[in-house]
Design a protein that fits this description.
Elements lengths: L1 H6 E3 L4 E3 L2 E3 L5 E3 H22 L4 H18 L2 H9 L4 H15 L3 H18 L1 H5 L2 H16 L2
Antiparallel strand pairs: 1-4, 2-3
Length: 151
């Protein structure tokens, strides 16, 4: 039990109250998940930097690699393998990895559009949008699609 505690780091820092420390929260994030979050944030940063530099191929490829690495580190590799092998995610996987392959082949705009479509598929299939009424779904999907195409 002590070995598990050593690997976990408190998410919120301890506040000092007089001469004692009070733990604000008992939530812990393991080191693997912290590394995964760093890779995910780096992937998002490289993605937006690649878009700012007009679809820079190197930034977009680094962003994809960082996002995939962060996803594997944040979730377990077995979870990632099972979710990629899921029959419901075939279209999402094909469009995302097809876009990544097109970026490697120097078709960065087509690869970005294909990955944008995979993100749209992910939003459509997410449980948050499926719980909404149809009109709200349509408004949310159109708003997200328009906001991403104007980047």
């Amino acid at each position: 039990a002590s070995d598990v505690y050593k690997r976990q780091v408190p998410f919120l820092l301890l506040l000092r109250d007089r001469n004692s420390y009070i733990n604000i929260s008992m939530r812990f994030i393991s080191e693997e998940k912290q590394i995964g979050l760093v890779f995910l944030f780096a992937g998002v940063w490289f993605y937006f930097t690649g878009l700012i530099f007009l679809f820079n191929q190197a930034f977009l490829i680094i962003a994809n690699l960082a996002l995939l690495t962060g996803w594997v580190c944040y979730r377990s590799p077995s979870y990632v393998a099972l979710s990629c092998a899921n029959k419901d995610n075939v279209l999402f996987n094909a469009t995302f990895f097809g876009g990544f392959f097109l970026m490697i082949l120097r078709c960065t705009v087509l690869g970005f559009l294909l990955q944008l479509f995979s993100g749209w598929l992910l939003l459509v299939n997410s449980s948050i949008i499926l719980r909404c009424k149809f009109g709200v779904q349509l408004i949310v999907i159109v708003y997200i699609s328009v906001s991403y195409t104007h980047l």
